[in-house]
Design a protein that fits this description.
This protein has about 675 residues and is α/β, with parallel strands linked by helices. The strands form 6 sheets. Strands 15-16-14-17-20-13-21-22 form an 8-stranded mixed sheet. Helix 19 crosses helix 20. It is globular.
């Protein structure tokens, strides 16, 4: 330990463990197990640098949040804090949910600690301060909005040679040249996402204009997400003492879901916290078998700081989510099987016996749209009304957005249910229309039981429209969008009143507007407010599309109007008894469900069909499979380890030969043919 380290992290004692079990309302043996051999207790008490590989449902997040609560309670240094980073904001939400308004929760979410995403940390402590010191403004950090601004710049005469290069290549609609551009140096060198240069000859007029356009985009304040890592790296190059300052500020580093880190992220974090002799105490949590976030140009995870490091690696192979049956079904799909030990489920609210009820639902072109209905009926058969009310039921697939083709059904989740809206799937969605902002807010509100989620999304949608009409409007980066809008409208009582009326109708009353009422009244209100704030007319095609109030199915046809556009499949339609959340596999990573239906989708081939050897017990783990098959294995391993009680798969019947169907019937799976009526069990 270097003498520059300010202090040793607080030690975790048995009394601390008892306290946190009481705080979280957990059993006294929650971290040591009934037999005292649960590996989580040693990890909870350890202050060493560790790589912790935790299987699905092992209680990893509970372990991490419990450790954070104990450390925050015992923390005494007012200027040095904990740094907790993750690929998403799951850890922060878990702290907010579990610790609520406790003293420990408030400490963790305030100075000197930081809990958030890797991108958020890099932006706040490195990239944004450095850019401002260089005289650059920061308006937007988002790939899509950065691309839109670059396209606006392309229309300027000074970039005519570059536009002449781009336009014919994008004419077919199958190639997006602009979205590939990424600034890779402070001198505004541009590379495509695969790392290659756009032009072999850097002296061409179009090549010179590309660098000039990138510089103009930065000066206007528009950035892609990953470009911020380049600026952070530049700061460390130019001001190397920043690294020592960061290590003094943060004495302990936790990284959650580390398997999803890109090489770009891992290399920067290693340089910042671990390189050299004065490394901080670091504990990384993850599962290499669940690395499903793909990064351009990478087939595997980070190489600079590989996870897990065998020298400091610790395993947690026991799952408290599901029992051994689900463990046995899912384990073969892990690239490096851990021999999952199913110690669950431990949910006291679900008592129905689902042993040997895990099912494969077989369908054809005519019955694909009946798969989720069949699943819903099966849930009604297996679970009580009370369990259906309190349980979490999902249906997920790998591909959840429509592509250009409409053959090889089902290609994506929408082919099973036309009302599905892929824009609302992410935990933190980035909608493309105002209606989608509203529905995203209603989804968040339903999850949190807080109306303010809808209000914030309404305000965020209006500000998005402002940026479309006037990209140079200075909207800042306010966290509370609604409050900011009220400030902007403070001196215009008429518009302020109209805005509050809109909030009342859409958020408080949660009225389901018909397209006619929206177009004749409320769209005008939103447009007028955006024009007032942006001081520019809302007239672009992009803005008009943003304000459209239409719902379309996967083939572009008007879909059946539903009372709620929230990706919840309700069955029966009248007086629903079961609600099934439909989404992508990525959208449910880290979650626990009572039951999960995994839907087959198409990417070059039908994904589950490719995995037949693993489903039939003929293969286990990785072999000599190519990149696509390895990706399929990881994604479906994640999907099949979500449920606590029931696992179902939806697959095409013609994916199996007659011999394989006979083999399926003697396997642990139940097998049924989907029909227009009740399923036919084989």
């Amino acid at each position: 330990m270097s003498e520059s380290r300010p202090f040793e992290p607080p030690r975790v004692t048995d009394d601390d463990v008892a306290w946190v079990c009481d705080l979280f309302q957990l059993p006294k043996n929650a971290f040591c197990g009934v037999d005292g051999n649960d590996p989580r207790m040693k990890l909870l008490k350890s202050n060493e640098t560790l790589d912790i590989e935790a299987c699905p449902g092992s209680g990893k997040t509970t372990l991490l949040v419990a450790k954070l609560a104990i450390l925050a309670r015992k923390w005494t240094n007012p200027r040095c804090g904990l740094c907790v980073l993750s690929h998403t904001n799951v850890a922060r939400r878990e702290i907010e949910q579990r610790l609520g308004n406790t003293t420990e929760g408030k400490r963790l979410l305030s100075y000197p600690h930081f809990v958030g995403t890797i991108h958020g940390f890099v932006n706040e402590f490195l990239a944004i301060p450095w850019l401002r010191s260089l005289g650059y403004q920061i308006k937007v950090i988002a790939n899509d909005q950065c691309e839109q601004h670059r396209r606006r710049l392309l229309r300027l005469r000074q970039f005519s040679a570059l536009a002449s290069y781009v336009d014919p290549r994008e004419a077919s609609g199958r190639l997006n040249v602009v979205s590939n551009w990424c600034v890779v140096s402070p001198s505004f060198d541009i590379r495509k996402e695969n790392g290659q240069a756009e032009f072999n000859d850097a002296t061409r007029p179009a090549a010179r204009q590309l660098s000039a356009l990138a510089a103009k985009c930065v000066k206007d304040g528009y950035y892609r997400y990953d470009e911020m890592f380049m600026w952070a790296d530049d700061l460390l190059n130019q001001v190397p003492e920043v690294r020592a300052a960061i290590r003094v500020r943060f004495g302990v580093l936790f990284i959650d879901e580390v398997q999803d880190n890109s090489e770009l992220q891992s290399a920067l974090l290693f340089r910042l916290f671990m390189e050299g002799d004065d490394a901080v105490v670091r504990q990384r949590f993850g599962d290499a078998n669940q690395a499903i976030y793909q990064h351009t140009g990478q087939t595997e995870g980070a190489t600079t700081d590989h996870f897990p490091d065998s020298r400091i690696g610790k395993d947690i192979p026991n799952s408290h989510r599901f029992g051994q049956e689900i463990g046995n079904l899912a384990n073969p799909l892990a690239l490096d099987p851990q021999s999952l030990v199913g110690c669950g489920p431990c949910c006291a609210t679900i008592s129905s016996d689902t042993s040997r009820k895990h099912a494969i639902l077989l369908f054809d072109d005519q019955t694909a749209r009946n798969v989720i209905t069949t699943y819903a009926r099966y849930l009604l058969e297996l679970f009580s009304e009370q369990e259906l009310r309190v349980g979490t039921f999902t249906a997920v697939g790998t591909v959840h957005r429509p592509g250009e083709k409409d053959d090889k059904l089902p290609r994506f989740v929408g082919h099973y249910w036309p009302d599905y809206d892929p824009e609302l799937t992410a935990a933190e969605p980035r909608p493309k229309t105002f209606r989608q902002y509203l529905m995203a807010g209603r989804k968040l509100s339903s999850d949190s039981c807080e109306t303010y989620c809808i209000v914030e999304k309404i305000a965020e949608g209006i500000l998005r429209l402002v940026s479309m009409s006037n990209p140079l409007a200075d909207l800042g980066n306010r966290r509370r969008k609604h409050r900011y809008l009220l400030e902007l409208l403070a001196e215009n009582l008429e518009f302020r009143t109209s805005y509050l009326d809109l909030v009342t109708v859409l958020a408080v009353e949660q009225r389901d507007l018909a397209a006619g009422e929206w177009n004749t009244k409320w769209a005008t209100v939103v447009r007028d407010i955006a024009e007032l704030i942006g001081n520019a007319p809302v007239e672009s095609e992009e803005a008009k599309e943003f304000l459209e109030w239409r719902v379309s199915d996967s083939r572009g046809q008007p879909a059946r109007q539903s009372s709620q556009r929230d990706n919840i499949f309700r069955y029966p339609v009248e007086q629903p008894k079961v609600q099934i959340r439909v989404g992508s596999i990525h959208s449910v990573k880290g979650e626990t469900h009572t039951a999960t239906l995994v839907l087959d989708t198409f990417y070059y081939k039908h994904n589950l069909a490719v995995l037949k050897p693993w489903l039939l017990g003929q293969k286990s783990g990785r072999g000599n499979e190519g990149k696509q098959s390895l990706s399929r294995l990881k994604q479906h391993y994640v999907a099949m380890t979500r449920p606590s009680h029931l696992l179902c798969l939806g697959m095409r019947k013609d994916a199996f030969s007659d011999e394989e169907l006979v083999q399926l019937k003697t396997s642990p799976w139940r097998v049924a043919s989907v029909t227009d009526m009740d399923p036919v069990w084989l």
